[in-house]
Amino acid sequence: MTLHWFDLLVIALYMAGTLGLGFYIANKARQDMNAYFLGGKKIPWWALGVSNASGMFDIAGTMWLVTVCFIYGLKSVWLPWVWPIFNQVFLMVYLSLWLRRSNVMTGAEWLETRFGKGRGAELCQWVVVIFAIVSAIGFIAYAFKGIGKFAAIFFPWHWSPDTYALLIFAFTTLYVLKGGMYSVVLTELLQFVIMTLAAVAVGVIAMSLVSPEQIQQATPNGWDQLWFGWQVGLDWQGLLDSANDRIQSDGMELFGLMIMMMLFKGVLFSMAGPVPNYDMQRILAAKTPKEAAKMSGLVSLVMFFPRYMMVAGFTVLALVYMGPEIKAQGQNFDFEQLLPIAISQYVPVGLAGLLIAGLLAAFMSTLAASVNAAPVYLVNDVYKKYFNPNAEAKTYVRLSTLMSLVLVVIGVGMGFMLSSINNIMQWIFGALFGGYAAANLLKWHWWRFNAYGYFWGMMSGLVASLVLPLLLPDTHPLYAFPALLALSLAGSVLGTLMTPAEPMQVLCDFYRQVRPWGFWAPVKQQVLAQQPDFDPDTHPGRDAINILVGMVWQLALVALPIYLVIQQWPEFGWTLAVALLSSWFLKKNWLDKLKD
């Protein structure tokens, strides 16, 4: 596809506006590291929430969502549990409160509030820095591969996808490095508006061009059903045989087992808290703990409807109008190209430019968030702490800029070596984050867990997750998760029991400040002995109920726009009722009871 000149003009104006905004606010952002990375903790919670939602509206993830919606239909709403998407529910209910109460800048710095400042705490900080850098590089490679495949469909110079990705990366990195957190948040507000308008327009176009009868003729039985059994129950034989091949290569024949594994892994991972990336950064940037929780709740509320309206719109357009083309290519068809091909064929001039600008905005949001979140660990937790603690604020900011550039270069190099968005995504969310769960779950909920337990738990999980793709290249990361969890858990428990407990005063200070629930009885007794009127105000039972309701609420928000686009009105009505009822319950039992 060669874009119309008007579409190219829309894209160019958007890019120029974004870069100009980043430069305009650069001076304010670069006063010191707190301003550069956390916006001085002065940004409103709703702006942080919309920014976080925009950052999650990434182009590579959207391409993957269109692919799985095409192949699995309504059952695809369960598949983002692999990330897991419901970690936002755990954050909004209680974990954002706990994390923000620490009042620190990074996840590594947070460890001092939990483990003190001894040798073990230093080892913990080093392993978190390593994890933050490795995961950031993985996200950069993920974004690189997605934007290259996307851009190669539209632009007229017949370059390779990696060449297009390299050029777009250069532009995006420039505005991120210049403006820091202020630049990221303010430009993401603009980007979210563009994406929402474009997404709704795509859904409306699909509803006007595709009827429910056409969808039914193009899909196998069960495609439009949300519920599932042990088997996926979808047979594309005769309709699109290559879709059956994709189901087999995804390892999704035993769909029920895979969803159970996603739930098991997802709950443990969610209870462990956010990994050291842009999600954690926005929580730490909130003005207060209460605003951090509200910000996390807003992400789900504003993100799902526009994103899935666009996903469903492109899915049904591709199903009905691209079937013969896909069938003709057979096993050679790359399902990850569904999104850009659908845009090139079915979106009118003008709107195509707006939509591509919006999706480029989504890419920029993801890259900006990842690039801005990771360097602070190197600068604040390594350089400032060990090499130059008394440097001028501008020195730290300049070094942060350099570290951001280095990470982008390494991530791009990794992106050149990898071939599939799905492979990168499965490795990041299945293996790498799988090795993160045990140690970070224990740090919140078990008082005896100490710094050495955290270090050995994280190291064993991190090493295992890095070695896994080399030793077992054909093993699905979800199937490897129990082994990763066991290794990390063994490292955590053995490292803890073979070394002394943390000083009781450190534990008391942490418990008094954060007020977690779990196995904290000895520490709670000590705090009450020191401060008889202390009220921890913990309510695990209420939190558990809110999490269950929140997961239903989130699932309804995902399914609602898909039912709308495929025009299944009874199911749309029931899903809307569930979304409204669960929203009312969460307002009464969560939002109205939030405390700093």
TrEMBL record:
Keywords: Cell membrane, Ion transport, Membrane, Sodium, Sodium transport, Symport, Transmembrane, Transmembrane helix, Transport
One Pfam family here: SSF
Catalytic activity: L-proline(in) + Na(+)(in) = L-proline(out) + Na(+)(out)
Sequence intervals crossing the membrane: 6-26, 46-74, 80-99, 120-144, 164-185, 192-210, 254-275, 296-322, 354-378, 399-418, 424-442, 454-472, 478-497, 544-566
PROSITE patterns noted in UniProt: NA_SOLUT_SYMP_3
Record flagged with keyword Mitochondrion: no
Main location group: membrane
Bilayer topology annotation: Multi-pass membrane protein
CDD domains hit by this protein: SLC5sbd_u1
Keyword Membrane carried by entry: yes
UniProt subcellular location: Cell membrane
Membership in a protein family: Belongs to the sodium:solute symporter (SSF) (TC 2.A.21) family.
UniProt protein name: Sodium:solute symporter family protein
UniProt source species: Rheinheimera marina
